[in-house]
Amino acid sequence: MSTQIFRNLRVENAEHLSDITVTDGVITAITPAGPVAGSAASPAGTGSRDGAGSPAPVSGTPVSGTTAQPSHAPAATVRDFGGRLALPPIVESHVHLDTTMTEGDPHPNESGTLFEGIEIWSQRKAKLTVEDVKERAMRAIRQQVRFGIQYIRSHVDINDPNLTALRALLELREELRDRVTLQLVAFPQEGIESYPHGRELLRTAAELGVDAIGAIPHYEFTREYSVSSLNYAVGLAQEFNLLMDVHCDEIDDGASRGLETLATRAYEAGIGEKVTASHTTAMHSYNNAYFIRLLRLLKMSGINFVSNPMVNTHLQGRTDTYPKRRGVTRVKELTEAGINVSFGQDDIVDPWNPLGTGSLRDVTLIGLYVTQMMGASQIDHSYRFITHNGARTLHLPDYGIKVGNPANFIVLGAQSWREALAFHAPVLASYRRGELLFESTEPERAWHL
Q1: Which of 76, 103, 128, 240 sits at 20 to 30 Å (Cα–Cα) from 314?
Q2: Residue 110 bears catalytic tag
Q3: Where is composition skewed (Polar residues) in this entry (predicted)?
């Protein structure tokens, strides 16, 4: 039996500090911070702060010591974090690992539009190999882990007769199973009804073992195809007992109404908590009378939403002169209605986003600005868009810093989420079942003003 004690952590912005006890990879106690016998650690809350508002550095070396326990019990390994912020692991609700690191190949997306990106990817897709996909995906995943991510939902283009990208990421999912949770969505980038053998490819993906079924109703040739594609996707997800995540109405067209069909099917089937509508950017073009009517259905259905504020701000509104639309779904209104919304990166250095680091801190910061959610409470609770809300979207069990859950958590170089946002605090440590997945040290700073 191995025991670890993580001292002086501010769990999810709590006013008080806590000690977390982990036994064999499971959280067995969360108690008010207190002294550890035999430890030279500083008292709780005494960490100094530098001129940039960041906490003073913490030693990366565990401090040996024991808690008040029977003399026959083995010594616990102790690490003191001096008042740093502890959060559940970051959840990436929406990314495309098959397309990552392909920007400029075969040529850049000069128009910056969604549709040119699809054309470029269609050309790049012809060159895919299993090795190519896995190598690029692993580069992106290492970046994501660096930023505290342990759970990743990746959409994978299945409009490929060979399903090369899907086979590659299915392999990678198994290879990473003990370190990173990778959920795969069968994503028909060029349509289900509008792509040759689209239905058959989607069914094959389900048979191969994806975690979720996708669709792209706004890209289908006709409104009839849009509805038919959603009906087929919902039926397939139910047949294989899979989650759903639909690229839904990712367009500036206010007449794009795939969302009402998806929500209705989810409501009728009673599967709302397993269904996600991603993007829904047409919602920024809906008139308020229609949105108010739609909102009733959305609440009844219980479906989840994913917004990708960074990439959609870049892609949408491209045909506008002025006034120019922001291109992000109605995050504030959905959240206030009690509907689950999480944030995703979407793309990392690919035809739809030439930049992107994998940091959901950046996505959250931009999301707060473009959705005008800058109230004090909105800022302080915004970490939930990339933690608890994302966990609900991915249907994750045993998530959160709770007694009885696996010891999965991250520690940031800040004493609050607001400070982490404002000063881009690094992830100091990421623990998976009590074992280090990633760690870094805070940089030393010197000013010569």
Answers
A1: 128
A2: no
A3: 61-70
